[in-house]
Description:
This protein is an alpha/beta fold. It has three domains: 3-85, Four Helix Bundle (Hemerythrin (Met), subunit A) (Up-down Bundle), CATH 1.20.120.140; 101-296, P-loop containing nucleotide triphosphate hydrolases (Rossmann fold), CATH 3.40.50.300; 306-439, Signal recognition particle, SRP54 subunit, M-domain (434 Repressor (Amino-terminal Domain), Orthogonal Bundle). The protein has 22 helices and eight strands. Strands 3-2-4-1-5-6-7-8 form an eight-stranded mixed beta sheet, with helices on both faces. Helix 10 links the parallel strand 5 and strand 6. Helix 6 (113-128) packs parallel to helix 7, helix 8 (168-181) packs parallel to helix 9 (199-212) and helix 18 (368-379) packs across helix 20. It is flat. The relative contact order is 0.10. The model is unreliable at 433-437 and 439-443 (pLDDT under 50).
Amino acid sequence: MLETLSDRLQGALAGVRSRGALSEDDIKAAMRQVRLALLEADVNLRVVKQFTAAVGERARGRDVLESLNPGQQVVGIVSDELSELMGGTGRELVFASGGPTVILIAGLQGSGKTTACAKLALALREQRGLDVALAACDLQRPAAVDQLVKVGGQAGATVYEQGTAADPVEVAGWALERAVAEGRDVLIVDTAGRLNVDVALMAELAAIRSRVKPHNVVLVLDAMTGQEAIRIADAFGESAKFDGVILTKLDGDARGGAALSIRASTGKPILYASTGEKLDAFERFHPDRMAQRILGMGDVMTLVEKAERQLDQRQAQEMEGKLRRDEFTLDDFLEQIQQIRKMGPLTSLLGMLPGLSGKQLSQLNLDEREIDRIQAIITSMTPAERANPSMINGSRRRRIANGSGTSVQSVNQLVKQFGQMRKLMRQVASGKMPTLQQLAGGR
């Protein structure tokens, strides 16, 4: 996510990060590199000028130039200004004190609007425990209603629809009446998109807005369109008066121009970011955390929040007990793998750790398919074999390899690595920590 921007900015600051002393010329050179990095990331020129001017002014202050670690302070200033550029502390949706909260979703065709509706519904259900309904008012695009019914059902939301022959304004009003009558907490209204911002689109949006009186109007923008996303936001802002943005396809946007320019260009915050194709690949947008990710400082808070949502506390305590009693089996190992996978792709999770840039992650050559192979091998074992891998002899290994579509060597490697892991866990649980030489395979 934003790999190019991250690598370029970290490269631009590499010269000052570890310097024991800085001159004004050093700062000017660093700001020139930062300016180039932002322009290459398709950030709006006016935004780039304002950003580098603000960073340069703070970086040339006496407190920085005369500090013991001026390079790190400059990096801190860049992080602060990046966070402020993207919206500071961020903003929440506005929720109604009584009755359903109405969220009107707008955007052009192809921006991922309908899927974003389902992702938002899932997030509100799982993270806030809200009863969410979706109103199918996109009657322009063929199969848009069917798509919303499908993804809405996958998100566990109720979908109100009247087919494609109805009037979208009437459908929106009818859906709100049903949401009120059925005591829903939230109604998300999916409106029509078009290929371009036009008069008919804005008129329909205004009519639906007048009918349902939404608490939030949210614009969906495709992060990969860069500066075009800013122009679309400006056009919607003149007519639709939206309150915030859902930025889709952020996982495919290596440059980051839209993420860095939207807040400064429109004055509206990014509320959520879509970070993958799956419905749960959807995050609250925290400008301060995103700034830290871009600068290679990690995003431990989001990682912890993901773990808290996905990992069962009771199971974690049971697993800890098994580790202490040396009862950890391949079944337990498989369960841990499956829970971690629920948190998202490994590259995404590792990208939240401090010090790992996009370039470094690419050099790790992580292959998600290797986890699939491990799961296939374990599930091809009998319950007795998973409980006691030492019983897996040559003929059993051949059977497991054939059943999992892998090789005997792969089965051997998994059994060996699991044995080493159990040995390490026993030492940790007993308080006898292994030495670095032992971890490296030495005596």
